């Protein structure tokens, strides 16, 4: 398997994290790993996100990546912080070329055939399908997999514990991304671990 496929197959759900207080970084990561979700996507949506990646990488068992990477500058900052994989909401030639050149496992966002074709041109075969529910949901992804049987996906956006199994039942879907696992505000470690265990138990059919 490719490095990004190995990461995608580590657990059925990748938590999509918005860390607003640096003090929350380690407790959130520890609770998620304890619950069986080792792959953590820290979105670059807050001022402390880069530092949060550095802190979470110190948690034993955690595989920490950067999400919401928009351009080569974001990519460089994420790699400098030790991000082990990169996730973007979309795909541009500049970001795609920079990510491929860096050699980092890369999961670019796609929502249509043109996005996937751009990724294939760059040598990529593993994609985020985003925003999953508002981009047509499962019927849209099923339609897209017809012309692109080589493509594998991590749908993200609007997915819940209840709907995740429907996505995971699709052969090209290796995992899903989810923001439902971690509560907003001060983290409740026990609740996060419980939620993580439920997500980790989904598995692939």
Topology:
Elements: H1 3-8, E1 13-17, H2 25-34, E2 39-43, H3 49-56, E3 63-67, H4 72-80, E4 86-87, H5 93-102, E5 106-107, E6 109-110, H6 113-121, E7 126-129, H7 137-145, E8 152-155, H8 164-168, E9 176-178, H9 189-200
Parallel strand pairs: 1-2, 1-9, 2-3, 4-5, 6-7, 7-8
Relevant terms:
205 residues, alpha/beta, 4-stranded parallel sheet, 3-stranded parallel sheet, 38% helix
Structure in words:
This protein is of the alpha/beta class and 205 residues long. 38% of the residues lie in helices and 16% in strands. It has a four-stranded parallel β-sheet. Helix 3 links the parallel strand 2 (39-43) and strand 3. Helix 2 crosses helix 3 (49-56) and helix 2 (25-34) crosses helix 9 (189-200). The mean pLDDT is 97.
Tally the helices: what do you get?
A: 9
* SSE pattern, N- to C-terminal: HEHEHEHEHEEHEHEHEH
Shape: globular
- The whole-angstrom Rg is 16 Å
pLDDT averaged residue by residue: 97
Alpha carbon gap, first and last residue: 20 Å
Number of strands: 9
**What portion of residues is helical?**
25-40%
Mind describing the biggest β-sheet? 4 strands, parallel
Give the oligomeric state.
single chain
Alpha-beta content class = alpha/beta
């Amino acid at each position: 398997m490719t490095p990004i496929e190995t990461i995608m197959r580590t657990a059925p759900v990748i938590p999509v994290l918005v860390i607003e207080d640096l003090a929350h970084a380690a407790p959130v990561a520890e609770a998620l790993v304890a619950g069986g979700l080792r792959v953590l996507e820290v979105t670059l949506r807050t001022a402390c996100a880069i530092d949060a990646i550095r802190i979470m990488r110190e948690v034993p068992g955690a595989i920490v990546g950067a999400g919401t990477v928009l351009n080569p500058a974001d990519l460089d900052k994420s790699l400098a912080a030790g991000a082990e994989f990169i996730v973007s909401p979309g795909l541009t030639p500049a970001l795609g070329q920079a990510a491929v050149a860096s050699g980092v496992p890369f999961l670019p966002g796609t929502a249509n055939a043109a996005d996937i074709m751009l990724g294939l041109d760059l040598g990529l075969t593993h994609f985020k399908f985003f925003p999953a529910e508002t981009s047509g949901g499962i019927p849209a992804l099923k339609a897209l997999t017809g012309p692109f049987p080589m493509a594998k996906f991590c749908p993200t956006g609007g997915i819940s514990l209840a709907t995740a199994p429907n996505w995971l039942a699709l052969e090209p879907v290796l995992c899903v991304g989810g923001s439902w696992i971690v509560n907003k505000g001060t983290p409740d470690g026990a609740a996060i671990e419980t939620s993580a265990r439920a997500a980790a138990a989904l598995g692939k059919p």
